[in-house]
Fold this protein.
Amino acid sequence: MARLSAPARLMIVSDLDHTMVDHHDPENLSLLRFNALWEANYRHDSLLVFSTGRSKTLYKQLRKEKPMLTPDITIMSVGTEITYGDSMVLDDGWIEVLNQKWDRNIVTEETGKFSQLTPQPETEQRPHKVSFFVEKDKAQAVTKALSEVLEKRRLDVKIIYSGGIDLDILPQGAGKGQALAYLHKKFKTEGKLPLNTLVCGDSGNDAELFSIPDVHGVMVSNAQEELLQWHAENAKDNPKIIHATKRCAAGIIEAIGHFHLGPNLSPRDVADLLDSKPESVSPGYEVVKFYLFLERWRRAEFDNSEAYIKSLEADFDPSGVMVYPNGFEQSFSDSVSGLRNYHGDQQGKRFRVWVDRVFASQISSDTWLVKFNKWESYGEERNNCVISAILRSKGNSGFTWIHVHKTWVELPQGKD
Ligand code: GLC
Ligand code: MG
């Protein structure tokens, strides 16, 4: 990753469904807690990698439904597609590796003879992944018969069963684990092997992540039987792998703490943010803290007190200006005092604010230019703006906001 000039402090490689994303948590609280922790403490010097079974089509759909951060690297279709950055540039080198001993036509020809296999939707059939649904009680026998048949046809494939329903057939060299090994090798050649890697998963296709040398691993509390069984048979004495006591993203935060990989207190778990003393002050922490304060203010999670307004006034330079997307300019003192009108306007509603891709560059001895995306969701509706802000350091006691400029990326529905 060209973005980092030194090895990443931490690389998190996480599965999405039922690991980073909890489909049983309509409020997405553990995901939002992870997001705040990542942007406040890790984004600037660490790498976030999502590794999912989903194709790009279904991955994009999930991103629209859930408050997910933008990863540095996205590995899709069970380790068969690796892309970089926000614009998702495909790794062609990986495709070449996967072409070895793979013939998709033979796979579809042979699988067509198995009546127990129900093909998955067209979007999930990929150049190096052929996928089916299979009932749990038939999975083992089908897998065995399939691998014998495909071996006879001189193919070297990997068959993976996940979630008690999904069966994927991939080239032998593919899979989430192999994709991670490929990335590690690539980083090593550049002299940028991450100082620590934490892999996170819940189901069968995640198992091989846990067998990559030197990684820490967390199986979230809600992990599937097939993964727990794999662990019991293959890795139960490895102290670098834990079965978390918490679900999904909360289990990831738990593992960061367990293995001492860095800060593990999410700003969302700090009750009085304006009064808190964080482990380290950084522009990222300041941005996360301010937008979390706004969320809580509008949700009326604390009283409308002048002390908060006073404290914000101290954080916003009186001569500073807020430039809105329509070009309207407002002095910081008007913006801050205008906040009084917003206290509790989202009380009892599903209102959340989160920031993504917080990048700061130092532009003078004490001043930072910080650019980030700010998301707001109102239940199903959401909007996204890109914000550039100038912050001046106050030493150990945080930052003063000097200038803020907002631009819409996605307009709130019905507004212009
Ligand atoms: C995702 C994919 C599916 C795959 C499954 C398990 O759900 O959409 O194609 O079979 O992950 O890897
Ligand atoms: Mg999963």
